[in-house]
Amino acid sequence: MVDLANRENAERMAVRVEGSFTVGADRGTVWASLLSSEMLASCIPGCEGLQPLEDDSYEVSLTAGVGPIRATYAGRIALSDKIEPESFRMLFTGQGSAGSVRGEGTVTLVEAGDETEIRVVGDAQVTGAIARVGQRLMGSASRMLMNQFFACAKAKIEESKQ
Q1: Domain, as residue range, for 66
Q2: For the residues of 89-157, what is the DSSP string, one character each?
Q3: Could you tell me the CA-to-CA distances from 124 to 27, 46, 65, 158 in Å, in that order?
Q4: Structural domain count, the chain
Q5: What is the per-residue pLDDT across 66-76, written as a single tens digit (0 to 9) for each?
C-alpha cells in the first residue's frame, strides 16, 4: 500500500529567501525600473517570454532548474500591495513538466543617501521532480536566482544613469 500523505510531503518543499542589494540610484528610479516589464523580461533568469496583462500582472515563460532537473514553466507574475516608492509584493505561480512552483515575496526600497537598498523576503513552494531531487539544492539555487536578478537589475539601473 502506498502512503499518499508521505509521498505528497516528499514531493513538496518550501524554501525561504532573504537578501539585500544596494543600487547606486534614488528610490524613485529603482522603483520605476523594478516595475518595468522590460527590466523584468531581461533580468528574470531563464525568462523566455513576458507578456503584460491589464491588472499589474504578466504571463511568463521561463526555464529553470535545480541540479540535473531543468524544466520550462508557464505561469503568471502578479504585483500587489504597492506603496510607491517604498514596497510591493510579487507573486509567481507556474506549472511545468517537473512540477509546480508558487512563490511570494515582499520587496522594500530604503533610501540611503544617493543609493537605494533593496530588501527582499520571500517564500516558495515547489512540487514534483524538483522537490524530490533538489531538496538539498533548493535553498542555494533560490538564492542564486535572486542574486542573478538583482545583479542584472543593479547593472541596468546604474548603466541608465550614465
Answers
A1: 13-161
A2: EEEEEEEETTEEEEEEEEEEEEEETTEEEEEEEEEEEEESHHHHH-TTTHHHHHHHHHHHHHHHHHHHH
A3: 27, 17, 14, 29
A4: 1
A5: 777 788 999 99
Q: What is the pLDDT of residues 82-125, one digit of tens each?
A: 999 999 999 999 999 888 989 999 999 999 999 999 999 999 99
Does 131 fall in a domain? yes
Percent with pLDDT over 70 in the chain: 91
Task: Tell me the HSE value of 120 on the side-chain side, using a 13 A CA sphere.
Answer: 24
39 in Cβ contact with 30 (< 8 Å): no
How far is 156 from 141, CA to CA, in rounded Å? 23
